[in-house]
Amino acid sequence: MNLVAQLRKLAWSGIPNQLRPICWTLLLNYLPPVSSRRVSTLQRKRKEYLDYARLAFSRPESMDQTIWHQIKKDAPRTHANKELWRQERTQRSLERILYIWAIRHPASGYVQGINDLVTPFFEVFLSNYVEGDLETFDMSDASQELVDSLEADSFWCLSKLLDGIQDNYIFAQPGIQRQVKRMKELCARVDAPLAAHLESEKVEFIQFAFRWMNCLLMRELSVKNIVRMWDTYLAEGGDAFSEFHLYVCLAFLVRWSEKLREMDFQGIIMFLQSLPTQDWNDENTELLLSEAFVWKSLFHNTSHMANK
Hints:
By secondary structure, this protein is mainly α. It contains 16 helices and no strands.
């Protein structure tokens, strides 16, 4: 068994905080498994990102103003309740990462929701350099070299993640439409009473599940919960951020089945837009992941056959 295969097996149940930065870079194939090549690869990729940044921002008049305007609007809204993400320096980093990614991926460009997906990477890589609470860290204490490294590593890992779910962000977002349709079909199989109640109340899955797919549940769970979840997604490999995520969303919906079946249309929509997950810990997250794994094992092949 090679290094990455062994790492996947170990990472499924969660990665220790101090090992997570290096493990994520290996699992995403950002850094090579051969340790002797990692330093040179890291230096090359960080330089490549800085070259992209210089090119993208050297002539403001040549920038794509539509994309830039939307990113400038979304950056301050990203985790606006957290001190780390309210800071101007962090927001400038987020803007640069998003703009460079968007202009290098013209098929999709920038789509709202991608801004959320940067934040777990940025916080995990920041944890390499900061002790204590990351979300209150003062970015003005960080050297420019550190900021450049955080941006570059976050950019490349975001790119690796999005490569696997590009269908979610191209015109009409067909990847998300497909996943939401499959989620509705699967819900009828694993929780028929809930599926029937949602249908009787005229609740469409797209009304709540679109955001769950588009932002990978980042609006529903804390960054800490998401980081633990991504340990398992990265361990699953392949298309985990689309296929395995579908089953996580299904488990997440069914988790609230009893409450939802007592609500009318308005109550259901309001509840699903503001779920009571503020106190969730790793145990809650791991229960979701375990249920998702069981359902994927049961239904994944049959779902594929049904779609052929």
